[in-house]
Amino acid sequence: MSEAATPHAPLESDPEGYAPSVAKRLAFYQRAGGIITPFLTAVFAFLMGGIVVGATGHNPLRVYKAIFEGAGLNWFLHFGSYHVDIPFTNHHIWFWWDTSTNHTAAYNLTQTLLTTTPLILTGLAVAFAFRCGLFNIGGQGQYMMGAIVGVYVGSRFVALAHVTHILFAIVAAALAGALWGAIAGFLKATVGAHEVITTIMLNWVAYWGGSYLLGRDGPLQNHVDKSIPISDDIAQKAHLPAIWGNPALQALHAGIFFALAALFVFYLVLNRTTLGYEVRAVGFNPEAARYGGISVGRNFVVAMAISGLFAGLAGGIDILGWQFRLGVLDVQVSNIGFIGIAVALLGRNTAVGVGFAALLFGGLLTGTSTRSLDPQIFPPQLAGNLALMIQALVLLFVGADLLIVYIWQARRKLHLPRKVPA
Amino acid sequence: MDEAPVLELRGITKQFPGVLANDHVDFDLRHGEVHALLGENGAGKSTLMSILYGLYTADSGEILMNGKHVTISSPKDAIELGIGMVHQHFMLIPVMTVTENIVLANEPVKAGVLIDEKAAERRVADVAATFKFAVDPHARIENITVGQQQRVEIMKALYRNASIVILDEPTAVLTPQEAQELFEILRTLTREGISVIFISHKLNEVLEIADRITVLRRGKRVETIPREGATEEGLARSMVGREVLLRVDKKPAQPGDPLLQVHELAVRDDRGLEAVRGVSFDVRAGEIVGIAGVDGNGQTELIDAVTGLRHPASGEIRVGGHDLSRATARAAFDAGMGHIPEDRQRRGLVLDFNLAENLVLHDYGKEPFSRLGWVNPRRWIRWARGLLEEFDVRGGGPTTRGGSLSGGNQQKVVVAREVSRNPSVLIAAQPTRGLDVGAIEFVHRRLVEQRDAGKAVLLVSLELDEILSLSDRILVLYEGRIVAEFPPEVSEEEVGIAMTGGRRSEAA
Predict the structure, then answer these.
(1) Is the CB of residue B88 less than 8 Å away from at least one CB of chain A?
(2) Fold for domain B258-499?
(3) How far is the alpha carbon of A30 from chain B, nearest alpha carbon, in Å?
(4) Hey, what CATH topology would domain B1-82+163-243 get?
(5) Which of B56, B219, B362 sits opposite A292 (nearest CB)?
(6) What is the pLDDT of residues B32-91, one digit of tens each?
(7) Which member of B351, B357, B364 has the closest CB to residue A13?
(8) Where in chain B is the domain with CATH 3.40.50.300?
(9) pTM score, two decimals?
(10) Exposure pattern of B112-149 as b/e (b: 16+ CB <10 Å)?
């Protein structure tokens, strides 16, 4: 998080700052200001959302309370004397929260965390590329490639042992995402194709590719029922173990540990390895990196591959954790990769920030879902829109923040063409 | 000369976050004089002029014109009051003609909306005739020289009826001959009753052109003195606040074996045009070879090729016997090359990295700075702490962001990094660009030290003074070719003529 604490960058000293690329501008947002900006961004988004809720004739406070409870976050507020099972044993220890998912709050929380898991990873997929100065819009496609390969490996290779099968499927999914990301990085490094364009196109390739593979008579379509455009179910032993809740009712699975580990890996790679040093150097100033002897093109490929790795991992563990199968509809309606962009931006491309932003969006999505929100308080069909709206407002405010920074920068440029008081 | 000031700034104070840029500065300008504003970078010259031109508002203080209080809150106000400013970077539109640029945003119109081209041309011709400007009014900006572009900028101000013209470091982009032409123009302007504020940090120029000189240091006015009696040494002392060695003190060179050999090098620029056309030279151990030339004659491409940042089209580069013709930047560094790049902010430093990270920019991947791909930031910081002390970098420690240092200290960090790697060949490209007198002295001393330690130093600079005072041999680059070689005793005029493509007169 040390980067997030950096005070306002003196813009006048950034020669590229005057005509920055989108990625450059967004990367700037990540540097300007501390924790207060993303916090205010979120608060403003919720305030504006509240005004809209009020305009529909509902009480915003009650609605937000219902969303909060729908997300299960109220679970943390009820202390008591309970116990929690120790995994893989018959023992249990005392705990101050009630973990029984028979209670709505605890169940809702498992669902929030279930959504948070892939959001962390797709958020990291966007954040890592950002740190290399690249705007990875392709998280969705990379996620989908991971999911497709995950369902393929998970539903075949049934001869493999339990853990081996899971690891094989997850590694294959992550590599599929990495490959999908690396294509965009490679095109940028070799022919200079802009990553925003190529990743959007690769999203569509994944979208239609997945629709073909899983669709009627597609190679991955269900072997048993040829009437539905859905894959085979993955093998029972390829399921990620449930860690909280009843597996029959969509329990929280072990995939969350992958996501939490990924946050740590993200931090470690960026700040403690030569690879991370190169990626950050290229992200901050490709010209200086090149001068320093760093291959900019190679880092574009590597950074996009690592980004794709995170997104592919998300796709894989969603399949192995709770979806267990993949349908054409899933491919076409999923937007978890796109929400990752909002997560990364709100989280300012840092590990800790992405973790919290993913939890916020995970809670928002779960809290406004038809399943969790009390229709007496707010109609669920409106609530889904509210979630989208708040998401959009966050992006808008991130953009507005940038705009302010940009105007300030332009002012400085006009006022002092070259020199500034040192 | 009329002694009543046409312009008076009284007690101007401007506070920026953390910096008092102007601290009760007084300044006055008399009718028809050239008043030089002298100071180091960050002394507050630009801030003061920005306040006068309406780009900033002063926190306190007042502006009087012809004895009357005025409020200037935007450049528009300033222009209306007859103040014109020529920025260091010209604000001209390359594809438009001289006339179009001059009348831009202030075009004579006919029938309400149409530009009256005849009237525009007439008025521009009037201005040119009054002030004796020799510029083709129909030429496109992109086709005329930098010196002529500067004249267009001045004409722009005069066209808007400026009686006060502010010139911000006007000679930075000019050859010595062009600078002389500019001074001639300034003398004409003052004869016609225009008053000129001349911002500079070059002492010799100020002494040549100014009637009076005001020196600023750290936001405060140190003194305002007439040119008569002023000396370079005295002005330098006022600017820096201590005695400064203006002449580089060095012993005669003791050149050894050639360490850098460049043979028939040809390099293309970004547009694919041949920018360097068959250049050959050696730099021997223990000598400084200076490459003089006007900007844009192939210097950048030459440096890029020699340092591995650009592949040459043909030719050979050898460092201590290694062939580096097709080498990468990393390979060049590893072969013993040091490179102080011409733009420290764009290239020399990652401004968002801290100083420790910047100081390991070439060697982060080598032990002891990292091991098996894992970096050792504690080691970086310890290394940085030593270097920052040795090279007297002020304004921050190892974990300070590179961008928050002043230009001079940034350059010290670059020099520290390059010199500490103990290179056998040191390429210094414009090593003192934009630095103040104190920092220039520091960099020059370090370069001479490297020479005396038996390194081969290649100095590429647009500052002829710098080339002349440091080099043991001088090469002149013109249109991608080396057109002349001079010993260090050569006169400025002779090099200047070669820089503009004139034949070296063998008879003289």
Answers:
(1) yes
(2) Rossmann fold (3.40.50)
(3) 12
(4) Rossmann fold (3.40.50)
(5) B362
(6) 999 999 887 778 888 899 899 988 889 999 999 998 999 998 888 999 999 999 987 788
(7) B351
(8) 1-82+163-243, 258-499
(9) 0.77
(10) eeeeeeeebbebbeebbeebebebebeeebeebeebbb
